[in-house]
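Posting for a labmate who doesn't have an account.
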Amino acid sequence: MTTTSTSKSSETIELAPSYKIPLVLIVAALPLAFWQKWLGLAIAVLGLFLLFQATTLRLKFTDTALEVYLSEKLLRHFPYQDWLNWEIFWSPVPILFYFREVKSIHLLPIIFDPEMLKTCLEKHISQNQE
């Protein structure tokens, strides 16, 4: 996690990447490839794709929005005021992050620190939805 502050008391929190899901998929694909070669290959490719995404994508929580960056380039901006709901699926081992805006639904694999993600969501979304 990286936190930066400015003189206006605004805070930006950048979530640290989590490589758990991509690595589990890659490791699981190896023995699976002996049983079903194409299925093992497909899961390995998915794991490699998620590993690449975990190294290049960044989620930043600002005072007004969730921002998604590819390296240093801003890809998407999701203002908290447009959010209707959010959830992190399967609490024992978080694997999927869901959030709904006024006009769209988003699903993201948990390739970020799940505890900090939950903390930031509770901090920013709960206060803005009510």
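Reply:
Got it, the structure tokens are right above this. The mean pLDDT is 89.
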